[in-house]
Write a structure and sequence with these properties.
Layout (H helix, E strand, L loop, with lengths): L5 E2 L11 H4 L18 E5 L3 H5 L26 H10 L2 H12 L9 H34 L2 E7 L2 E6 L8 E5 L7 E7 L5 E5 L1 H4 L4 E5 L17 E5 L11 E5 L2 E5 L4 E2 L4 E3 L3 E8 L5 H5 L9 H33 L2 E2 L2 E2 L18 H15 L8 H17 L14 E2 L11 E6 L6 E12 L2 E3 L5 H9 L38 H13 L4 E5 L5 E4 L3 H12 L2 E6 L3 E7 L6 E2 L6 E8 L7 E7 L5 E7 L1 H4 L11 H13 L3 E10 L1 H15 L6 H12 L4 E12 L3 H10 L3 E5 L4 H10 L8 E5 L4 H9 L2 H25 L8 E6 H7 L5 H9 L3 E5 L3 H15 L2 E6 L5 H6 L2 E5 L6 H4 L3 E3 L4 H41 L10 H11 L1 H10 L5 H6 L5 H4 L6 H26 L13 H23 L5 H22 L3 H4 L5 H6 L3 H28 L3 H11 L5 H9 L9 H19 L1
Parallel strand pairs: 18-31, 18-35, 31-34, 32-33, 33-34, 35-36, 36-37
Antiparallel strand pairs: 1-21, 2-9, 3-4, 3-5, 5-14, 6-12, 6-14, 7-8, 7-13, 9-10, 10-11, 15-16, 17-37, 19-20, 19-30, 21-22, 23-24, 24-25, 24-26, 26-27, 27-28, 28-29, 29-30
Length: 1202
Amino acid sequence: MRKGTRKLRKLRLSKIYTFACGKKSLLNEEHSRIGSPGFSRVVLLNEPSESSENASGNNNDNHHYADNVVRSTKYTVANFLPKSLFEQFRRVANFFFLVTGVLSFTKLAPYTAVSAILPLIVVITATMVKEGIEDMRRKKQDIEVNNRIVEVHKGDGVFECTEWKNLKVGDIVKVEKDEFFPADLLLLSSSYEDAVCYVETMNLDGETNLKLKQGLEVTCSLTEDNLSDFRASIKCEDPNANLYTFVGSIEFKEQVYALSPQQLLLRDSKLRNTDYIFGAVIFTGHDTKVIQNSVSPPSKRSKIERKMDRVIYFMFLILFLMAFVGSVFFGIETKQDLNNNVMKRWYLRPDDSTIFFDPKRAPAAAFFHCLTALMLYSFFIPISLYVSIEVVKVLQSIFINQDILMYHEETDKPAHAITSNLNEELGQVHTILSDKTGTLTCNSMEFIKCSIAGVAYGRGVTEVEKAMNRRNGLEFDDLRNSPDRKAPIKGFNFTDERIMDGNWVNEPHANVIQNFFRLLAICHTAIPEINEDTGNISYEAESPDEAAFVIAAKELGFEFYKRTQTSLSIFELDPVSQEKVKRQASLTYMLLHVLEFNSTRKRMSVIVKDEKGRILLLCKGADSVMFERLANNGRKFEEKILEHVHEYADAGLRTLILAFRELDEEEYKEFHDKFTEAKNSVSADRETMIEEVSDNIERNMILLGATAIEDKLQHGVPNCIDKLSQAGIKIWVLTGDKMETAINIGFACSLLREGMTQIIIHLDTPEIRSLEKVGDKREIFKASRKSIHRQLSQGAQQIAAASGTPEQAFALIIDGKSLTYALEDDMKDLLLDLATKCASVICCRSSPKQKALVTRLVKSRTGKTTLAIGDGANDVGMLQEADIGIGISGVEGMQAVMSSDVAIAQFCYLERLLLVHGHWCYRRISSMICYFFYKNITFGFTLFLFEVHASFSGEPAYNDWFLSLYNVFFSSLPVIALGVFDQDVSARFCLRFPMLYREGVENILFSWRRILSWMLNGFISSILIFFFCTKAMEIQAFDEGGRTAGRDILGATMYTCVVWVVNLQMALAVNYFTLIQHVLIWGSIVIWYIFLLAYGAMASSFSGNAYHVFVETLAPTPCYWLLIFFVVITTLVPYFTFSALQMRFFPMYHEIVQWLRHKGKTNDPEFCAMVRQSSLRPTTVGSTARRVAKTNSLRGSFTDHR
């Protein structure tokens, strides 16, 4: 530990090691593979570089190994240009414009080459700049990690600080408390005498509990004083991705010792509760196990973007069809131009024309005309669509990042949209797959209730109880916030005057209460830390549960303060004086054995001897294993305690049963001998022997009571789940926790409720257990598959039988062992079919791989948008597999965040991220794309109509630069503002009416029906503009001079109408006007007139037929202004009429809410309840659905009673 206010007592902790830690290192058959392929790594420790270079060539030259530099960038300086260009021209639209740009240098082009190439260059350059900026951010993150500082041994016991990137294989480093390991290290020694250290693996597996590591005995005495003489060589496995295995050996002083994972400290894990360690670098950089486990983030594209590609292909089909039809007619007309030397269109001189208009070579002319038409009609395809969408998404991401309501002040963490190209996907989520620990919960346990001697103690209120009381309008007293309450204590939320402040001595069963809290103070592996300045004691424990128990015992008068090699000491409240007194004899317990907790045993025990010489076995464990181990005379309070345990479980609390027994000397000696023999065994069934011996001693116990701790839900989780459920989003929980805990949390956050039928899929059946005892793996496999298939089929039949009962809701709960079989090819469809019909799905005891496989199954088979959310490295596969990965950044582990698409600090922020930003982004992007197609069809189809009017001459209706700048300046800026600022309803109404989100889930706003309707609107607008303009100018004089309108006047007039129409159409489509939108909409029209003036004032050789066309011809003519006014109004009438009729007779969700707001009915409870009620279904979960189900149940009971 660093110098400061704390002092950690050094201990030899051999008595509290886990069984795995205590196991001897053996050169067994596994280590015999060293030197074979896959096990060829040789590392020389503490060798000078000269020695390494001259070492014999058996792969032991340390400089051949990877350096410690980590790179996560997509590009390098050398490959940025070719690789990014390749990425851009993979898009079919960009490639098409590249081809037309090249063709524009030929005689086929209907416009100049510069006007065709320049927009493409602008678009491609903008996109490449964006890619470069994003890659630079990744480069900065790499630099930050690579430049972290570590102390490395330079010789003669001297350590110097250097950057991580400079480490080499074989270096000896010193890592101090709360620092990360810079590479995969071999633990040599530590600040503890027996070379143990505590490691937090949050970045690797998401767990906050500490792991115990221990160096070899032969190296445990290494210090700075004797490191200079240390020389050793290591032979081990080659780099691989397996986090939990390590095979190797170390040769030291001509002796060979086996290495195991117990000596391996992995990169990015953190040293905790240990002053320092000395470690040898084994794997560096990309050879480390954590980097080997990382995969390149999958390239994710939103469903809207993929559908947009299909719309682009459809537009190409229309484009090619127009070009083909026009070419056929052009060929026919050209062939008829010269018939028996009679010239039909004599003014074209068909008798003396080039191949492009030669009647004698009409098929060739038609082919060349087709190429010309493809270039001319290319304006159908919006060249600026992709870059505009990318700009909009970046700006949307900035708004997400700066949302103050998603900023977590406690951890100083704002929301962070890491990947901007999935913004609209946030508005289409159908299924959320969530981790539990650290995601739904804080992973911060609080002791809140207990049952002792059949009496329930504790007046604390759980999160689910608070949520239900608020929903029912009931008042409750939060004792934690009462003025008489002491300052909050982490891990302790217990209030009961009957046993606090020493009042337990007045209770009827004071002796049982005393034994209960003594057990909590003694039965653990926690380590006390004493603050030398204040004298306060804090605890480092292997799990938050254990820390909560020790803190509770301390707060209730049983303060654990010291641990030595063989004893535990506590301060205890004197029942007489009610003061803490130090009584060395009575309050020091000799620690004899620790029987560790694991998922199979489901319990933990310690065997201690008190000052009277009594040997006590103190045990705490799950009710499923504890009640069966009670003695006949130890069940006095069983019935009442069991009743309380069920009540606690219903309140979402995690329970443990506490019991003890007294051992006589002979019984203990027999156990000690057998346990020692089993522990020292080198056979394959060593662990089984240890568990059998432990199982025999942990029987005939006397029941003391039960604890209830709350794995405290993160703030706002129940309300968030309630809102997400009303929005039509399904929520699945994938957790590594045991089934009981997962079910408890399900109730706590209202994913489960009373009356919901639970379909539990598991393999804990008598048949499977009997086969496991026999050990026939083939029979176990067959029976397990058959059992899972039967249970899944029965679940489906159960749901089908209840289909006539609309009030019935189901929940599927399945464990990891069962998932192994259920995810097989012949059963996964059955699993998915059953799961999708259930209101809630909880997968417990799930491995990281199973989480990813379940996510893949839901994503691929349903075709709906999936969102995965987690906080640990064990969630990375799930996050990358889902359409959207959300990382929780409120804890220290950043592995999930680095692999996610969006990072938030708390689960509750998901409500605002999806229902507000997701809904807005989906709506904005959908409307934006539809409008892009509309404006390009409106513009592009006028070119085709002019071609028809001009006998497919290949001449454009507009000036070259009119064509090129349409998508860049005169119509694109307002649509970008639409994509950034538009709101159908405010954030407050998005949260108040979650059903608005269903527009995205059902993809209403980007369905083919809506896309085609916008396209149809574009065709209608184009036809109206062309028809009215041509007919108005066809015969009569255009101005006072009697001149008729030529192509220059007609083209400029039509273009002006198009600019007005598409921009005013935008104004009609906008729901929420801002100053920026006003400026851009009206500004685009003004810019057109300014450009027309400026461009027309240039030399005629450059401006062409636009020379002075506005000043001399259009502006002075009233006909021009009247025509524009008439055409614009007429063209917008169809859309306005359709919108009005839809709003009146077929309103969408957002239009209903808009109507409520317009009529001032948003505060009318009757109207709001009517609108909200449509979002509740039998399959909806959450506190609102829970309350409605309970009300319906009470009504049903009342009706039956009547």
